[in-house]
Design brief:
By secondary structure, the chain is α+β, with helices and mostly antiparallel strands. The chain contains three helices and 29 strands.
Length: about 450
Protein backbone atom coordinates (compact mmCIF):
# COMPACT_ATOMS: atom_id res chain seq x y z
CA UNK A 1 0.00 0.00 0.00
CA UNK A 2 2.83 2.37 0.88
CA UNK A 3 4.61 1.60 -2.37
CA UNK A 4 1.46 2.44 -4.31
CA UNK A 5 1.12 5.71 -2.38
CA UNK A 6 4.69 6.76 -3.17
CA UNK A 7 4.29 5.85 -6.82
CA UNK A 8 1.24 8.15 -7.01
CA UNK A 9 3.10 10.97 -5.22
CA UNK A 10 6.08 10.73 -7.54
CA UNK A 11 3.81 10.78 -10.57
CA UNK A 12 1.50 13.62 -9.45
CA UNK A 13 4.10 16.07 -8.08
CA UNK A 14 6.10 16.48 -11.33
CA UNK A 15 2.81 16.92 -13.21
CA UNK A 16 1.66 19.62 -10.76
CA UNK A 17 5.05 21.33 -11.07
CA UNK A 18 4.88 21.28 -14.88
CA UNK A 19 1.31 22.63 -14.85
CA UNK A 20 2.28 25.49 -12.52
CA UNK A 21 5.22 26.38 -14.78
CA UNK A 22 3.10 26.41 -17.93
CA UNK A 23 0.33 28.34 -16.18
CA UNK A 24 2.81 30.93 -14.91
CA UNK A 25 4.15 31.45 -18.43
CA UNK A 26 0.62 31.78 -19.81
CA UNK A 27 1.01 28.97 -22.33
CA UNK A 28 -2.08 26.98 -21.41
CA UNK A 29 -5.66 28.10 -21.79
CA UNK A 30 -8.21 27.23 -19.10
CA UNK A 31 -9.94 23.89 -19.63
CA UNK A 32 -13.57 24.29 -20.64
CA UNK A 33 -16.20 21.59 -20.56
CA UNK A 34 -19.85 21.53 -21.53
CA UNK A 35 -21.91 21.77 -24.66
CA UNK A 36 -23.12 24.75 -26.66
CA UNK A 37 -25.00 25.45 -29.84
CA UNK A 38 -24.60 28.21 -32.42
CA UNK A 39 -27.38 29.40 -34.69
CA UNK A 40 -26.38 31.41 -37.75
CA UNK A 41 -28.91 33.38 -39.75
CA UNK A 42 -29.13 36.63 -41.68
CA UNK A 43 -29.68 38.75 -38.57
CA UNK A 44 -26.18 37.84 -37.32
CA UNK A 45 -24.37 39.42 -40.27
CA UNK A 46 -21.30 41.54 -39.43
CA UNK A 47 -21.65 45.33 -39.59
CA UNK A 48 -19.38 48.37 -39.38
CA UNK A 49 -20.03 49.97 -36.02
CA UNK A 50 -17.52 52.67 -37.04
CA UNK A 51 -16.47 53.47 -40.60
CA UNK A 52 -12.75 53.64 -41.33
CA UNK A 53 -11.56 57.25 -41.06
CA UNK A 54 -10.02 59.09 -44.00
CA UNK A 55 -6.22 59.30 -43.89
CA UNK A 56 -3.66 61.96 -44.86
CA UNK A 57 -0.03 60.87 -45.41
CA UNK A 58 3.08 62.27 -47.08
CA UNK A 59 4.59 61.34 -50.41
CA UNK A 60 6.96 58.32 -50.28
CA UNK A 61 6.15 57.85 -46.58
CA UNK A 62 6.30 54.06 -46.71
CA UNK A 63 3.92 51.74 -44.91
CA UNK A 64 1.47 53.36 -42.47
CA UNK A 65 -0.86 51.55 -40.07
CA UNK A 66 -4.38 52.95 -40.48
CA UNK A 67 -6.05 50.69 -37.91
CA UNK A 68 -4.14 48.23 -35.71
CA UNK A 69 -7.29 46.23 -34.90
CA UNK A 70 -10.52 46.71 -36.88
CA UNK A 71 -12.50 44.74 -34.28
CA UNK A 72 -11.90 47.42 -31.59
CA UNK A 73 -13.43 50.87 -31.32
CA UNK A 74 -11.36 53.99 -32.00
CA UNK A 75 -11.07 54.08 -35.80
CA UNK A 76 -12.90 51.56 -37.97
CA UNK A 77 -14.74 48.82 -36.10
CA UNK A 78 -16.56 45.83 -37.60
CA UNK A 79 -18.41 43.51 -35.22
CA UNK A 80 -20.33 40.27 -35.57
CA UNK A 81 -23.46 39.54 -33.55
CA UNK A 82 -22.17 35.99 -32.97
CA UNK A 83 -19.22 37.42 -31.00
CA UNK A 84 -16.80 35.81 -33.44
CA UNK A 85 -13.91 37.64 -35.10
CA UNK A 86 -14.88 38.53 -38.69
CA UNK A 87 -12.56 38.12 -41.68
CA UNK A 88 -11.16 41.25 -43.38
CA UNK A 89 -10.04 41.63 -46.98
CA UNK A 90 -9.28 44.37 -49.51
CA UNK A 91 -12.32 44.50 -51.81
CA UNK A 92 -11.05 47.25 -54.13
CA UNK A 93 -7.82 49.25 -54.52
CA UNK A 94 -5.57 50.96 -57.06
CA UNK A 95 -2.04 49.73 -56.33
CA UNK A 96 -0.54 52.21 -58.83
CA UNK A 97 -1.61 54.93 -56.37
CA UNK A 98 -1.93 53.38 -52.90
CA UNK A 99 -1.50 49.75 -51.90
CA UNK A 100 -3.88 48.69 -49.11
CA UNK A 101 -2.95 45.55 -47.19
CA UNK A 102 -4.46 43.55 -44.32
CA UNK A 103 -2.73 41.30 -41.82
CA UNK A 104 -5.35 39.54 -39.69
CA UNK A 105 -7.27 42.56 -38.27
CA UNK A 106 -4.63 45.24 -39.02
CA UNK A 107 -5.04 47.63 -41.95
CA UNK A 108 -1.99 49.33 -43.54
CA UNK A 109 -1.43 51.51 -46.60
CA UNK A 110 1.66 52.23 -48.73
CA UNK A 111 1.65 55.01 -51.36
CA UNK A 112 3.28 54.22 -54.70
CA UNK A 113 6.66 55.88 -55.27
CA UNK A 114 6.18 59.47 -56.42
CA UNK A 115 2.35 59.38 -56.18
CA UNK A 116 0.51 62.45 -54.84
CA UNK A 117 -3.21 63.17 -54.79
CA UNK A 118 -6.31 61.29 -53.62
CA UNK A 119 -7.17 57.61 -53.74
CA UNK A 120 -9.58 55.26 -51.94
CA UNK A 121 -9.76 51.68 -50.75
CA UNK A 122 -12.74 49.44 -49.97
CA UNK A 123 -12.37 47.00 -47.07
CA UNK A 124 -14.62 43.95 -46.75
CA UNK A 125 -15.72 42.53 -43.39
CA UNK A 126 -17.34 39.09 -43.58
CA UNK A 127 -18.32 35.94 -41.76
CA UNK A 128 -19.06 32.57 -43.37
CA UNK A 129 -22.33 33.82 -44.94
CA UNK A 130 -22.41 37.62 -45.20
CA UNK A 131 -20.11 40.58 -45.82
CA UNK A 132 -20.20 44.36 -45.60
CA UNK A 133 -17.83 47.07 -46.89
CA UNK A 134 -16.28 50.29 -45.62
CA UNK A 135 -14.67 52.85 -47.95
CA UNK A 136 -12.08 55.41 -46.88
CA UNK A 137 -10.09 58.07 -48.74
CA UNK A 138 -6.32 58.51 -48.69
CA UNK A 139 -4.77 61.92 -49.38
CA UNK A 140 -1.07 61.83 -50.28
CA UNK A 141 0.66 65.21 -49.90
CA UNK A 142 3.71 66.23 -51.94
CA UNK A 143 6.80 66.96 -49.83
CA UNK A 144 10.13 68.58 -50.60
CA UNK A 145 13.37 66.64 -50.27
CA UNK A 146 15.04 67.05 -46.90
CA UNK A 147 17.84 69.63 -46.96
CA UNK A 148 20.51 68.05 -44.88
CA UNK A 149 23.63 68.03 -47.05
CA UNK A 150 26.93 68.76 -45.41
CA UNK A 151 29.23 71.54 -46.71
CA UNK A 152 31.77 69.99 -49.15
CA UNK A 153 35.42 70.11 -48.29
CA UNK A 154 37.86 72.43 -50.03
CA UNK A 155 41.30 71.06 -50.84
CA UNK A 156 44.53 72.70 -51.96
CA UNK A 157 47.75 71.45 -53.48
CA UNK A 158 51.43 71.84 -52.95
CA UNK A 159 52.65 71.02 -49.52
CA UNK A 160 49.64 69.17 -48.04
CA UNK A 161 47.33 72.15 -47.29
CA UNK A 162 43.59 71.50 -47.28
CA UNK A 163 40.13 72.33 -45.94
CA UNK A 164 37.72 70.45 -43.66
CA UNK A 165 33.97 69.87 -43.33
CA UNK A 166 31.56 69.29 -40.43
CA UNK A 167 31.79 65.69 -39.28
CA UNK A 168 29.81 64.84 -36.16
CA UNK A 169 31.42 62.69 -33.53
CA UNK A 170 30.41 59.00 -33.43
CA UNK A 171 27.82 59.68 -30.72
CA UNK A 172 26.39 62.89 -32.22
CA UNK A 173 23.44 61.13 -33.87
CA UNK A 174 22.27 59.63 -30.60
CA UNK A 175 20.70 62.93 -29.48
CA UNK A 176 20.29 64.88 -32.73
CA UNK A 177 16.96 66.51 -31.81
CA UNK A 178 14.52 66.81 -28.92
CA UNK A 179 10.73 67.10 -28.57
CA UNK A 180 9.11 68.81 -25.56
CA UNK A 181 6.72 67.91 -23.94
CA UNK A 182 6.38 64.12 -24.01
CA UNK A 183 2.60 64.23 -23.33
CA UNK A 184 0.00 66.86 -24.31
CA UNK A 185 -3.20 66.88 -22.25
CA UNK A 186 -6.12 69.18 -23.03
CA UNK A 187 -9.67 69.55 -21.67
CA UNK A 188 -12.38 70.80 -24.04
CA UNK A 189 -16.14 71.18 -24.01
CA UNK A 190 -18.28 70.09 -26.92
CA UNK A 191 -18.08 72.63 -29.75
CA UNK A 192 -14.94 74.24 -28.33
CA UNK A 193 -11.62 74.94 -30.13
CA UNK A 194 -8.11 75.40 -28.72
CA UNK A 195 -4.45 75.24 -29.69
CA UNK A 196 -1.53 73.56 -27.95
CA UNK A 197 2.13 73.77 -28.94
CA UNK A 198 5.20 71.58 -28.74
CA UNK A 199 8.83 72.45 -29.43
CA UNK A 200 11.25 70.74 -31.80
CA UNK A 201 14.95 71.44 -31.10
CA UNK A 202 17.60 70.69 -33.74
CA UNK A 203 21.07 69.94 -32.32
CA UNK A 204 22.81 69.49 -35.66
CA UNK A 205 24.80 72.10 -37.61
CA UNK A 206 22.51 71.98 -40.65
CA UNK A 207 18.88 72.94 -41.27
CA UNK A 208 16.54 70.00 -40.90
CA UNK A 209 12.98 69.31 -42.10
CA UNK A 210 11.07 67.01 -39.73
CA UNK A 211 8.03 65.09 -40.93
CA UNK A 212 5.03 65.11 -38.58
CA UNK A 213 2.20 62.56 -38.46
CA UNK A 214 -0.92 62.58 -36.26
CA UNK A 215 -2.36 59.24 -35.16
CA UNK A 216 -5.54 58.22 -33.38
CA UNK A 217 -7.42 61.52 -33.08
CA UNK A 218 -7.61 62.79 -36.67
CA UNK A 219 -11.27 63.77 -36.14
CA UNK A 220 -10.38 66.05 -33.19
CA UNK A 221 -7.04 67.63 -34.11
CA UNK A 222 -5.00 68.99 -37.02
CA UNK A 223 -1.22 69.45 -37.18
CA UNK A 224 1.07 70.48 -40.03
CA UNK A 225 2.82 67.78 -42.06
CA UNK A 226 6.36 69.01 -41.47
CA UNK A 227 8.42 71.64 -39.68
CA UNK A 228 11.70 73.30 -40.71
CA UNK A 229 14.20 73.91 -37.91
CA UNK A 230 17.41 75.92 -38.34
CA UNK A 231 20.81 74.57 -37.36
CA UNK A 232 21.19 74.56 -33.57
CA UNK A 233 17.71 76.10 -33.39
CA UNK A 234 14.21 75.34 -32.17
CA UNK A 235 10.73 75.77 -33.59
CA UNK A 236 7.25 75.75 -32.01
CA UNK A 237 4.56 73.66 -33.70
CA UNK A 238 0.85 74.26 -33.09
CA UNK A 239 -1.74 71.49 -32.91
CA UNK A 240 -5.30 72.75 -33.38
CA UNK A 241 -8.14 71.00 -31.55
CA UNK A 242 -11.82 71.14 -32.43
CA UNK A 243 -14.58 69.10 -30.78
CA UNK A 244 -17.82 68.69 -32.80
CA UNK A 245 -20.98 69.30 -30.78
CA UNK A 246 -22.14 65.68 -31.13
CA UNK A 247 -18.92 64.08 -29.83
CA UNK A 248 -19.32 61.66 -26.93
CA UNK A 249 -17.84 62.93 -23.70
CA UNK A 250 -14.89 61.00 -22.34
CA UNK A 251 -11.20 60.67 -23.04
CA UNK A 252 -9.55 60.22 -26.44
CA UNK A 253 -5.94 59.12 -26.84
CA UNK A 254 -3.59 59.64 -29.75
CA UNK A 255 -0.04 60.57 -30.62
CA UNK A 256 2.12 62.81 -32.78
CA UNK A 257 5.09 61.19 -34.52
CA UNK A 258 8.05 63.48 -35.24
CA UNK A 259 10.65 61.37 -37.01
CA UNK A 260 11.58 58.70 -34.42
CA UNK A 261 10.07 60.49 -31.41
CA UNK A 262 6.44 60.27 -30.23
CA UNK A 263 4.33 62.72 -28.23
CA UNK A 264 1.31 61.29 -26.41
CA UNK A 265 -1.90 63.31 -26.83
CA UNK A 266 -4.83 63.00 -24.41
CA UNK A 267 -8.08 64.91 -25.11
CA UNK A 268 -10.70 65.08 -22.34
CA UNK A 269 -14.12 66.06 -23.70
CA UNK A 270 -16.65 67.39 -21.21
CA UNK A 271 -20.19 68.71 -21.21
CA UNK A 272 -20.35 72.45 -20.57
CA UNK A 273 -23.40 72.51 -18.27
CA UNK A 274 -23.54 69.30 -16.24
CA UNK A 275 -19.91 68.41 -15.54
CA UNK A 276 -18.80 67.53 -12.04
CA UNK A 277 -15.25 66.86 -10.96
CA UNK A 278 -14.01 63.26 -10.80
CA UNK A 279 -10.90 62.86 -8.71
CA UNK A 280 -8.79 60.02 -10.15
CA UNK A 281 -5.71 58.49 -8.52
CA UNK A 282 -3.72 55.49 -9.69
CA UNK A 283 -2.75 53.41 -6.69
CA UNK A 284 0.47 51.48 -6.31
CA UNK A 285 0.75 47.90 -7.49
CA UNK A 286 2.28 46.12 -4.50
CA UNK A 287 3.08 42.81 -6.18
CA UNK A 288 6.08 43.92 -8.26
CA UNK A 289 9.01 45.66 -6.50
CA UNK A 290 10.28 47.50 -9.61
CA UNK A 291 9.84 51.25 -9.74
CA UNK A 292 8.71 53.15 -12.81
CA UNK A 293 7.72 56.81 -13.13
CA UNK A 294 4.33 57.66 -14.65
CA UNK A 295 3.80 61.42 -15.03
CA UNK A 296 4.23 62.99 -11.58
CA UNK A 297 2.97 59.86 -9.81
CA UNK A 298 5.52 57.29 -8.75
CA UNK A 299 4.15 53.81 -9.33
CA UNK A 300 5.57 50.36 -9.28
CA UNK A 301 5.78 48.82 -12.72
CA UNK A 302 2.51 47.66 -14.28
CA UNK A 303 2.65 44.41 -16.22
CA UNK A 304 0.19 42.59 -18.55
CA UNK A 305 -2.35 40.58 -16.58
CA UNK A 306 -1.99 42.64 -13.40
CA UNK A 307 -4.81 44.50 -11.66
CA UNK A 308 -4.98 48.30 -11.97
CA UNK A 309 -6.75 49.90 -8.98
CA UNK A 310 -7.92 53.46 -9.72
CA UNK A 311 -9.35 55.40 -6.78
CA UNK A 312 -12.28 57.74 -7.57
CA UNK A 313 -13.49 60.75 -5.62
CA UNK A 314 -17.18 61.14 -6.61
CA UNK A 315 -18.16 63.37 -3.69
CA UNK A 316 -19.13 66.23 -6.03
CA UNK A 317 -21.93 64.06 -7.45
CA UNK A 318 -22.98 63.03 -3.94
CA UNK A 319 -23.25 66.69 -2.91
CA UNK A 320 -25.62 67.27 -5.84
CA UNK A 321 -27.93 64.51 -4.61
CA UNK A 322 -26.85 61.55 -6.77
CA UNK A 323 -26.63 58.16 -5.06
CA UNK A 324 -26.33 55.67 -7.96
CA UNK A 325 -24.51 56.28 -11.27
CA UNK A 326 -22.92 54.23 -14.05
CA UNK A 327 -19.16 54.79 -14.27
CA UNK A 328 -17.45 53.93 -17.57
CA UNK A 329 -13.86 52.66 -17.43
CA UNK A 330 -11.77 52.52 -20.61
CA UNK A 331 -8.10 51.90 -21.37
CA UNK A 332 -6.89 53.36 -24.68
CA UNK A 333 -3.62 52.94 -26.56
CA UNK A 334 -1.79 55.60 -28.58
CA UNK A 335 -3.93 54.84 -31.66
CA UNK A 336 -7.12 55.63 -29.70
CA UNK A 337 -8.03 51.95 -29.76
CA UNK A 338 -10.01 50.77 -26.73
CA UNK A 339 -8.21 47.73 -25.29
CA UNK A 340 -10.36 47.48 -22.13
CA UNK A 341 -13.90 48.68 -21.44
CA UNK A 342 -16.25 48.14 -18.51
CA UNK A 343 -19.29 49.94 -17.06
CA UNK A 344 -19.82 49.66 -13.30
CA UNK A 345 -23.00 50.65 -11.46
CA UNK A 346 -21.59 52.57 -8.51
CA UNK A 347 -23.13 53.57 -5.20
CA UNK A 348 -22.15 57.23 -4.77
CA UNK A 349 -21.07 58.44 -1.33
CA UNK A 350 -18.69 60.89 0.27
CA UNK A 351 -16.08 58.10 0.46
CA UNK A 352 -13.66 57.25 -2.33
CA UNK A 353 -14.54 54.35 -4.63
CA UNK A 354 -11.98 51.74 -5.74
CA UNK A 355 -12.50 49.33 -8.64
CA UNK A 356 -9.89 46.75 -9.68
CA UNK A 357 -9.36 46.49 -13.44
CA UNK A 358 -7.65 43.32 -14.67
CA UNK A 359 -5.35 44.18 -17.56
CA UNK A 360 -5.46 41.76 -20.51
CA UNK A 361 -2.60 39.23 -20.43
CA UNK A 362 -1.89 39.90 -24.13
CA UNK A 363 -1.76 43.70 -23.87
CA UNK A 364 1.26 45.19 -25.67
CA UNK A 365 3.78 47.07 -23.48
CA UNK A 366 3.71 50.84 -24.00
CA UNK A 367 2.00 54.02 -22.82
CA UNK A 368 -1.76 53.92 -22.20
CA UNK A 369 -4.52 56.18 -20.93
CA UNK A 370 -7.05 55.23 -18.26
CA UNK A 371 -10.34 57.04 -18.90
CA UNK A 372 -13.14 57.34 -16.33
CA UNK A 373 -16.38 59.04 -17.35
CA UNK A 374 -20.02 59.53 -16.31
CA UNK A 375 -22.56 60.59 -18.92
CA UNK A 376 -26.16 60.51 -17.71
CA UNK A 377 -29.00 62.98 -17.60
CA UNK A 378 -27.96 65.83 -15.34
CA UNK A 379 -24.64 64.20 -14.42
CA UNK A 380 -21.48 64.05 -16.50
CA UNK A 381 -17.77 64.24 -15.99
CA UNK A 382 -14.50 62.73 -17.13
CA UNK A 383 -10.97 62.21 -15.87
CA UNK A 384 -7.86 60.44 -17.13
CA UNK A 385 -4.37 59.29 -16.20
CA UNK A 386 -1.53 58.06 -18.37
CA UNK A 387 0.47 55.02 -17.29
CA UNK A 388 3.12 52.71 -18.71
CA UNK A 389 2.85 48.95 -19.15
CA UNK A 390 6.21 47.19 -19.11
CA UNK A 391 7.19 43.87 -20.63
CA UNK A 392 6.79 41.00 -18.19
CA UNK A 393 9.99 39.12 -17.38
CA UNK A 394 10.15 35.35 -17.77
CA UNK A 395 9.84 34.78 -14.03
CA UNK A 396 7.40 37.29 -12.54
CA UNK A 397 6.18 37.30 -8.96
CA UNK A 398 3.30 34.83 -9.40
CA UNK A 399 5.42 32.31 -11.29
CA UNK A 400 8.23 32.54 -8.73
CA UNK A 401 5.77 31.80 -5.93
CA UNK A 402 4.27 28.85 -7.81
CA UNK A 403 7.67 27.42 -8.71
CA UNK A 404 8.92 27.85 -5.12
CA UNK A 405 5.88 26.03 -3.70
CA UNK A 406 6.21 23.20 -6.22
CA UNK A 407 9.95 22.79 -5.50
CA UNK A 408 9.30 22.84 -1.74
CA UNK A 409 6.68 20.07 -2.11
CA UNK A 410 9.01 17.96 -4.25
CA UNK A 411 11.94 18.49 -1.85
CA UNK A 412 9.78 17.62 1.19
CA UNK A 413 8.45 14.49 -0.50
CA UNK A 414 11.95 13.41 -1.51
CA UNK A 415 13.32 13.91 2.02
CA UNK A 416 10.41 11.98 3.52
CA UNK A 417 10.90 9.19 0.99
CA UNK A 418 14.64 8.89 1.75
CA UNK A 419 13.97 9.00 5.48
CA UNK A 420 11.47 6.14 5.22
CA UNK A 421 13.81 4.08 3.06
CA UNK A 422 16.68 4.47 5.53
CA UNK A 423 14.36 3.62 8.40
CA UNK A 424 13.32 0.39 6.69
CA UNK A 425 16.96 -0.35 5.91
CA UNK A 426 17.90 0.11 9.59
CA UNK A 427 15.15 -2.31 10.67
CA UNK A 428 16.29 -4.93 8.17
CA UNK A 429 19.90 -4.54 9.22
CA UNK A 430 18.99 -4.83 12.93
CA UNK A 431 16.92 -7.96 12.25
CA UNK A 432 19.80 -9.56 10.33
CA UNK A 433 22.20 -8.87 13.22
CA UNK A 434 19.84 -10.44 15.81
CA UNK A 435 19.32 -13.50 13.63
CA UNK A 436 23.09 -13.91 13.18
CA UNK A 437 23.75 -13.70 16.92
CA UNK A 438 20.96 -16.20 17.63
CA UNK A 439 22.36 -18.61 15.06
CA UNK A 440 25.85 -18.43 16.62
CA UNK A 441 24.51 -19.12 20.13
CA UNK A 442 22.53 -22.14 18.84
CA UNK A 443 25.55 -23.60 17.06
CA UNK A 444 27.70 -23.16 20.20
CA UNK A 445 25.14 -25.03 22.36
CA UNK A 446 25.02 -27.90 19.85
CA UNK A 447 28.79 -28.19 19.98
CA UNK A 448 28.79 -28.31 23.79
CA UNK A 449 26.05 -31.03 23.79
CA UNK A 450 28.20 -33.21 21.51
CA UNK A 451 31.18 -32.91 23.80
CA UNK A 452 29.11 -34.01 26.75
Amino acid sequence: MRKLLWILVLLILPGAFAFSMLDALSILDPFVSGTFSVTVDGSNAPFWNQSISNVTINQNSGSTVVDSDMTLSGNGQCVDADNTTPTFAVASENTSAVDCSISSTELSITPATGFTGNDSCIISCSDTLNSTNSTFTITVNAVAAEEEAATPSASGGGGGGGGSFFAPSPGADIISFEIIPEVITIELNRGQTATKTFTVSNFREVLRIFKIKLRGIASLAVVQDEVSVDAQGASDVGINFYVPSGTRIGVYSGSIDVESETIGVVVEIKSRDTDSEIGLTLQESKSIPIDGKVDSLRLRAIYPGQALSPKLDLSSFFERGFTLLNVDYQILNSDNQVVYSETVETQISAEEFVKELDLPVNIVPGRYVLSVSIDEEGASGAASKTFDIKARSLFADESVVQISIALAIIAGGFILYIHRRWKVFDLVRSGAFIFTMYDRVRKRRRKQDRLL
